[in-house]
Q: What sequence folds into this?
């Protein structure tokens, strides 16, 4: 994974975040299926796609023995599985229930949640960038919250679930694809049982039409490909560059929510999102300049 140039790594990272940013229109095409059915297929086909990728790239499978099947590591991976499963389900529901903007705000907030978890659980120091940027971003959250309490929980749950997922994954020490294989593998039996039951009840969308069937099957590639591209980028790019690229995703999602899905956004929402964006960029810029940046855990929808 490390045999690529910086320019290629930058292109891979940008492509990954653009793919994540395009999730709203993709998942909206699956609206005929329920969020649980979409989640079930995402789990099944993600497992298949990652397994094929690891086999094709001739992965060394020793990590399964040394990096998974120990009591402590397996516990962290199980926790990560619950968090990423919840994150996927909430995001799918949010997109298909008309809350794309709220979902995007969750991923604006996510880096700050990661910083907070780093301070609390990993003893990372909050430098000047964290204090200044974090305060401005927090102000943005407060502005959004004012008058939008009924939907703020969507943003916060997405930010907390993925921030927690990233923090837990730090304990497991696996690559993104290795981790996704284990996590989707742990969820796989439940997904298969649910999808089989759904089919026997005649309620599933899989197989009802070529279009929806292919879209559900493609969810595995849609999940695994940006993760693989991100893994390529993360090995060659500085932390600050990866952090800045991260904001491509929620910015695209926010714009999709407004211009594609025609979601109404009050002026206070605009002000709050801009404050979150400014605060996040200040945090990344100052911490990188001070060379004391706590690790930012990049996002994945």
A:
């Amino acid at each position: 994974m490390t045999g690529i140039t910086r320019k290629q790594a930058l292109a891979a990272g940008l492509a990954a975040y653009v793919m994540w940013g395009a999730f709203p229109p993709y998942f909206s095409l699956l609206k005929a299926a329920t969020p649980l059915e979409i989640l079930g297929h995402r789990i099944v086909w993600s497992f298949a796609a990652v397994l094929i990728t690891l086999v094709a790239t001739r992965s060394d499978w020793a990590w399964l023995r040394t990096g998974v099947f120990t009591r402590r590591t397996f516990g962290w991976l199980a926790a990560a599985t619950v968090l990423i499963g919840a994150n996927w389900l909430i995001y799918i529901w949010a997109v298909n229930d008309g809350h794309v903007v709220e979902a995007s705000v969750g991923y604006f907030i996510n880096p700050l949640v990661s910083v907070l978890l780093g301070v609390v659980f990993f003893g990372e120091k909050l430098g000047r960038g964290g204090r200044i940027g974090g305060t401005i971003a927090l102000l943005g959250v407060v502005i959004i919250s004012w008058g939008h309490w009924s939907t703020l929980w969507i943003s916060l749950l997405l930010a907390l679930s993925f921030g927690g997922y990233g923090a837990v994954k730090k304990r497991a020490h696996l690559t993104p694809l290795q981790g996704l294989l284990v996590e989707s593998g742990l969820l796989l039996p439940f997904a298969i049982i649910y999808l089989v039951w759904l089919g026997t009840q005649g309620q599933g969308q899989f197989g009802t039409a070529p279009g929806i069937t292919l879209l559900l099957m493609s969810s595995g590639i849609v999940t695994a490909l940006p993760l693989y591209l991100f893994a390529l980028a993360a090995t060659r790019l500085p932390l600050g560059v990866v952090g800045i690229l991260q904001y491509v995703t929620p910015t695209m999602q926010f714009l999709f929510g407004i211009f594609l899905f025609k979601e109404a956004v009050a002026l206070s929402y605009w002000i709050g999102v801009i404050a979150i964006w400014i605060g996040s960029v200040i945090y990344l810029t100052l911490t990188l300049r001070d060379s004391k940046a706590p690790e930012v855990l990049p996002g994945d929808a």
In short: Residues 292-300 have pLDDT under 50 and may be disordered.
